[in-house]
Amino acid sequence: MSPFLHTDGTVRMKGRLANSTYPFNKINPLILSPDHYITKLVVLHEHVRLMHAGPQQMLSSLRENYWVISGRSCFNGRNSPPLRWKLGRITDVHPGADGVVRVVSIRTSSGTTKRAVRKVCLLPAVTQDHQNL
Questions:
Q1: What is the pTM of this model?
Q2: Which of 16, 94, 113, 127 is the one with CA 20 to 30 A from 104?
Q3: Which part of the chain is the DUF5641 domain (predicted)?
């Protein structure tokens, strides 16, 4: 599989179906970024169209016309509220060559793993006013 720039300005994925009789959009699916707003709308539309199907069926249906980069990441609880995410404790930080921390080690009930900082959510702090409620 290799990406290419189509004449209409879109980036598409060229695959092994080049000699098939399928339509152009199926042979060369449009590449979508997983974090883009349009991708989220396309995924939501497919989710409703397929009557709330599971991740495997959703991804299969999406890949008929689109190639979502890291496709399964669109279904891994990104839309769930942060307080429902798995809990863990940051045990180590890993700064890059520029000194900026972009990766942390997190210890959870199932072991230690590394995560990008942008995928880590700190729990809300409980203040004295909230404890009395």
A1: 0.54
A2: 127
A3: 77-123
Give SS3 for 73.
helix
State the maximum Cα–Cα separation within the chain, in Å, rounded to a whole number.
69
* Calpha distance 104→89 (Å, rounded): 10
pLDDT for position 36: 85
Q: Are 110 and 104 in contact (CB under 8 A)?
A: no
Q: Reduce the DSSP state of residue 113 to 3 states and report it.
A: strand
Report residue 113 as tokens: 């793993």
Q: Would strands 30-32 and 66-68 be described as parallel, antiparallel, or unpaired?
A: parallel
User: Could you give the CA distance from residue 89 to residue 99 in angstroms, rounded to a whole number?
Assistant: 22
What are the structural domain ranges in the chain? 2-75, 82-123
Percent of the chain surpassing pLDDT 70: 82
Per-residue confidence (pLDDT) for residue 31, from 0 to 100: 93
